[in-house]
Known about the structure:
Blueprint: H1 10-20, E1 28-30, H2 31-38, H3 45-57, E2 61-66, E3 69-74, H4 76-89, E4 101-106, H5 112-124, E5 128-129, E6 134-137, H6 144-151, E7 155-160, H7 166-173, H8 176-195, H9 203-218, H10 237-264
Antiparallel strand pairs: 1-3, 2-3, 4-6, 4-7, 5-6
Helix pairs in contact: 1-4, 1-9, 2-10, 5-6, 8-9, 8-10, 9-10
Amino acid sequence: MTSRLDCVHARAALFDLxxxxxxxxxxxxxxAALVRLMKPLEIAAPAVRTAVSRMVRQGWLRPIRLPQGxxxxxxxxxxxxxxxxxxxxxxxxxLTWHGRWHLIxxxxxxxxxxxxxxxxxxxxxxxxxxxxxxWIGPRSSVELDNLLEGExxxxxxxxxVLEGDPCELVARAWDLTAIGEAYEHWHAEAVxxxxxxxxxxxxxQVFATRSRLVHGWRNFLFRDPGLPPELLPAGWPGEKARAxxxxxxxxxxxxxxxxxxxxxx
Length: 265
């Protein structure tokens, strides 16, 4: 049976590549290098080029000229998104919570595509919808201003203290049972993925395995807002999953980074 960690689409893989490796190497790469770096993930050159073109249209990448030929670099918009993601993916421990909630009240948005983009992006930033126009999160996001400005949406924002039981609010806003089950499922699949990697695997195979691990973990940014421990059930599966992710991602990084450095030449 195919694991969900085995399936990585080209656009998602490129985001992972830029965020996990290229961001710290100048945020750029030639087209030829991108094709070579996607090969271990069994993503063909036409799919890479199509995904890159789409990311350019969406404002994530910009074309540049490199000594190695045509290439693409991250835009300021992409840098902000990658840095926000990195903070949540590789955070040390848990973020401090002071018992306050960040509340956003959006002006009504008539166009369905804009509403769907807003919903996806606000969810990514850790907010949950209480109604069509009211969203809540455990903390404000540094990317929120850019998101609202980019969509041309006005919003009133409040730093609020809840009068009542915060766990009841959490239960209303997020399905913790489903998120916990997703963590347990991811952990089981991740253990299987790592166990199939030979001890002396070549760098490209280590890169592919680590990329699949990171990709699966990154998906939780669209589900888990990063709630503080005091608002989570006892024995929260996300902590065990995070410990395993951090351990294996760090262990596989040197070989994966060596592959990236070699292919960027």
